Amino acid sequence: MRPSRILAAAILVLLTAPAAGAAAPPPNDDRATAQAVPALPAYTVGTLVDATTGQDEGGSSAVWYRYIAATDGRFTATFDAVGELDADIAAFRQVRSQLVFLDAESSDVKGAAGLAFRVRAGQTVLLRISRRVGSVADRFELRLSAAAPEVKPPGTPLGRGGVTSTLDRVLRPEEAYSYTMREGVTYRVNVVPVTPPPTARPATDPDAEDVEEQAPTCRANVALYAPGTTDFGARPEWVGGCDTYRLFTPARRAGGRYVFRVFAPRGARGPQRYHLQVAPAGPNDTAPGTFLANQVTMRGALAATGVNRVDLYRFALKRRSRLKLSLAGPEGLTVTLRNDRGALVEQGSAIDREIKPGRYFVAVQAAAGTRGRYRLRRSSRTITRSSISISGVARARARLGATLTVGVRLRPAVGGPVRVTFERFDPEAGWLFLRSVDARAANGRARLGFRPPAVGRFRARAVYLGTKAAAGSQTGFANVLVTAGSGE
Predict the structure, then answer these.
(1) Cβ distance 256 to 227 under 8 Å?
(2) Is the pLDDT of residue 129 over 90?
(3) What is the CA 6 to chain-centroid distance, rounded?
(4) Cross-strand pairs, 164
(5) What pLDDT shows up at residue 281?
(6) Residue 169, phi then psi, degrees to nearest 5
(7) Phi, psi at residue 342, to the nearest 5°?
């Protein structure tokens, strides 16, 4: 054979031979070749390295798993990235050639994700693990298992101290508890986030003895069901979030064993730690509440970690007043002012405002995680209006040597200290101080005499200094022109 033909044959062999070391995609790279999951629970280590993009993969490389449900029920799938992979995990029910969406989630900052879905026996479930845009391709761990049996009413009886527990949307999505309530009796219900246990730092950390405290967060919901409820398809009495405090009173012939369902809503990732407690309401927990006397400091204690979360007070005003509500205690306490119809007037760490006559309620409430003693003080001072006159009029005329009567009138007719200030007029300098005189009002009136020291213009203004029960106020000016005789 000629050398040129030998060379051509060698080149042809090189071109047609498979490239050495060329990587093949994972065997479950396509929906049609999904890896079968024979039975539950199942554990596998998969990879997205060299995975390709198929028709049902949303423009991203993915791998597939198939499971044929052996029984009716709820199933869970948990995903953990082994390396730096960021992935999306989705579950579908296969109906002939179509896919019916069941659940989906993206991996979090720790590379973890979880799904929970319900299927019937004989249905085919497909799981798709896809690489997120911009992520590296790497390995992962996948676990598929049957979820714990669903909780049913009436659940575990609640003790005096309530219960502290943790939910997980995938692994432990709901819990049920029961509590016996009597008709006509008011009960306090409190569900509150609980701070998770401290997270220890790695041993390689120079501050390894320290722990990192995590803020209390919880997205669990709580629903209350009437006595006799046999399944949670019934309509609840009410539904609240994980930071809920409320009062509940069973109606006539409605006493019995009530059921509480605590459940993690869709989209609530990670552990949802909560505390639920129920107890009868005391005198300071519901209307009419404790009387809040004026200028008296009330002392109390609250603990949002239990059921003693709100203290209720009441007071009444006969006249429009300046109200100050001061609250001293741990951070996380608020004071709420409502009228006797329950309408919100103001809320905050303290209240200072004018309010009209009427009956009012004051609630001191502790935010989640707050506990400790507090001091509450009410200062209500009737709003007053005051006026001044000289010889009965606002503008008077008198002769030198006459003694004039200065009158101060207060509305409403309160008593207390009054200060009257007199000024004289100078054409060059304007009004100049002359003297001040203190008097005392009784039944809304104060009187004093004034003898002008010279001819000219004089004026007087009064200030009501107020008392513990009445706010101060100030008058306008009363003027007098003093002359020496008819020639001036």
Answers:
(1) yes
(2) yes
(3) 83
(4) 275
(5) 96
(6) -55, -30
(7) 90, 0
Residue 289 pLDDT: 96
Does the pLDDT at position 230 exceed 50?
yes
SS3 letters across 277-322: EEEECCCCCCCCCEECCCCCEEEEEEECCCCCCEEEEEEEECCCEE
- The pLDDT score that the predictor gives to residue 205 is 47
Contacting residues for 158 by C-beta, under 8 A, at least 6 apart: 177, 178, 179, 260, 276, 277, 278
Identify the architecture of domain 31-146 in CATH. Answer: Sandwich (2.60)
Q: Which residues contact 106 (CB under 8 A, 6 or more apart)?
A: 86, 87, 88, 89, 113, 132
> What letter would DSSP give residue 265?
P
Residue type, 406: V
Enumerate the CATH 2.60.40.10 domain ranges in the chain, comma separated.
385-483
Rama region for 443: left / alpha / beta (φ>0; ψ in -120 to 50; rest): left
Q: Which CATH architecture fits 385-483? A: Sandwich (2.60)
DSSP state of 231: S
Beta-carbon count within 10 A of 370 CB: 20
The CATH code that applies to domain 290-382 is 2.60.120.380
Q: Residue 182 pLDDT > 80, yes or no?
A: yes
Residue whose entry in the numeric block shows the structure tokens 């002939």: 96
Of 480 and 195, the one with more pLDDT: 480
For residue 216, which amino acid is it? P
Cβ(469)–Cβ(476) under 8 Å? no
Is residue 465 left, alpha or beta, with left meaning phi > 0 and alpha meaning psi from -120 to 50? alpha
Spatial separation of the C-alpha atoms in residues 29 and 435, rounded to whole Å: 99
Cα separation of 403 and 453, whole Å? 10
pLDDT, one tens digit per residue, over 134-150 is 899 999 999 999 887 78
φ and ψ at residue 445, rounded to 5 degrees: -135, 145
Instruction: Give span(s): CATH 2.60.120.380, the chain.
Output: 31-146, 156-195+217-280, 290-382
Find the mean pLDDT for residues 334-344: 97
Q: What share of the chain is helix, strand, coil (3-state, %, to 5)?
A: 5, 55, 45
How far apart are alpha carbons 173 and 167 in whole angstroms? 6
Question: What confidence tens digit (pLDDT) does each residue in 74-126 have?
Answer: 889 999 999 899 999 999 999 998 999 999 999 998 999 989 888 899 999 99
Show the tokens assigned to 219: 């997205």
Structural contact between residues 208 and 202, judged by C-beta atoms closer than 8 angstroms = yes
15 three-class SS: helix
Residue 246 token pair: 């409320």
Summarize pLDDT for 40-56 with one digit per residue, the tens: 899 999 999 999 887 66
* pLDDT for 60: 83
The architecture (CATH level 2) of 156-195+217-280 comes to Sandwich (2.60)
* Strand pairing report for 124-131 and 87-95: antiparallel
